[in-house]
Hints:
Elements: E1 7-11, H1 16-27, E2 31-35, H2 39-48, E3 52-54, H3 62-76, E4 81-84, H4 99-127, E5 131-135, H5 150-170, E6 174-180, H6 186-189, H7 201-214, E7 218-221, H8 223-234, H9 237-249
Parallel strand pairs: 1-2, 1-4, 2-3, 4-5, 5-6, 6-7
Helix pairs in contact: 1-7, 3-4, 4-5
The structure holds NADP nicotinamide-adenine-dinucleotide phosphate (NAP).
NADP nicotinamide-adenine-dinucleotide phosphate is lined by residues 11-18, 36-38, 57-60, 85-89, 108, 135, 137, 180, 182-183, 185-188.
Amino acid sequence: MAxxxxxxxxxxxxxxxxxxxxxxxxxxxxxxxxxxxxxEKLKAAADANSNLKPxxxxxxxxxxxxxxxxxxERDLGPVDLVLAxxxxxxxxxxxxxxxAPFRTMYEINFLGVVNVLTAVLPAFRxxxxxxxxxxxSVAGYRGLPKAAAYGPTKAALINLGESLRPELEADGVAVSxxxxxxxxxPLTAQNDFExxxxxxxxxxxxxTIAGLASGRFEVAYPSRFVTILKIARLLPYRxxxxxxxxxxxxx
Length: 251
Ligand SMILES: NC(=O)c1ccc[n+]([C@@H]2O[C@H](COP(=O)([O-])OP(=O)(O)OC[C@H]3O[C@@H](n4cnc5c(N)ncnc54)[C@H](OP(=O)(O)O)[C@@H]3O)[C@@H](O)[C@H]2O)c1
């Protein structure tokens, strides 16, 4: 299928949603710069499709992110779309409570996106062109058990998009946020509970690409799960906590 972008940059593109979005875009003829820490996985993907161009990167290294974006534009030309998909998750245990997972998830999930924005915005604003998007999560809608470190980073990412979208729109730059439900990837493979509405990664990637092309601010899926969670977001705390206790904590 013809896509509206010539060059796309994806972080978190070695596995999971980022890798599959990259693979599908490359199959459609888009040139995709793929970044993550695992250089070998990126190389293997690039060996399978020459439209995939590996740019190994740790998104927590702000200077490296800026250098990486400059190299991509120098090698491949102006980037039309950036998808910041790099992220990590580990459950918070009350028996083992410490700042470490909070710091790690904040550094990768939230500041990693801020580093990408810092690298990309000067060029996009100067050209009055470009689309920057990042993967948050439906886990950012409301607090969820075990997600005390992960959830706040995703809530912050949604808020970041709401904050930046109007001003950047005035500068000709598009901003959007992708909020997936449960998708079958290495990140969710560690979950020991039944994940409602679990989606295959190829379907998640298709929905992500279609949503990004639509120009909507929020790209969220699967729709039934998203609707349930958006209704849950409106519930008073008394009812919300009662539901969480019966649905999640009894497991
Ligand atoms: N799967 C789900 O159900 C789900 C639901 C909602 C939101 N999400 C979000 O979707 C995004 C992708 O997740 P996924 O499920 O596809 O997980 P995944 O398969 O674990 O992919 C995570 C990607 O991020 C990269 N990454 C991690 N830390 C990095 C760092 N410091 N610098 C650069 N790259 C880094 C990983 O590669 P390296 O390890 O090689 O660096 C990998 O490519 C994440 O932001 C996640 O929070 C996932």
